[in-house]
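Long-time lurker. I teach an intro course on protein structure, and each term I like to show students one example going from raw sequence to a predicted 3D structure in token notation. This year I'd like something fresh instead of my usual example. Would anyone be willing to generate the tokens for the chain below so I can use it in lecture? Attribution to the forum is fine with me.
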Amino acid sequence: TDTPLPPPTHAQSIASPINLILFALLLTLVYLRLRPKPPPTLSRAPPPIVFRTFTPPMLKPYNGENNMPVYLAVNGKVFDVSNGRNFYGPGGPYENFAGRDASRGLACGSFDEDMLTKDLEGPLDDLKGLGEEEWEAMRGWEERFQEKYLVVGKLVAVGDPEASKEGA
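-- Reply from a regular --
Happy to contribute to a lecture. Here you go:
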């Protein structure tokens, strides 16, 4: 009927090899979960852009060469188009406009060098001779640039009193 079991001859140790391996694994997982994490590194912020007054000679170096940003002017506003360097920088289809007043060229849909003001020391292009369609095209480009790029300044002629305030 009910026969009692014989008493165990020795007690099982908690320190069996499998238990030690499982305990070590548990400690490793707890350590990996709770160890201090290195602080996240933030990317460096771009240098601040200050709104300034440009003259054509001051704008000319901003053509994307020598690690310079790419600026161009449309209707008196200077835009930082560096994000579109592949279009407006060296080798891009609109590279003639980099560092220059692109108003007439964009209005006329022409990327030719003769659309740019030759005399950088002279008066700004007054855009005389543009028809209503060209004005509309230029305003469209200006709106597009305002949506995509930062306005970093305004373009004035070399003799303008505002230019002398900036030290041009």
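Some talking points for your students: The chain has a mean pLDDT of 87. The radius of gyration is 35 Å.
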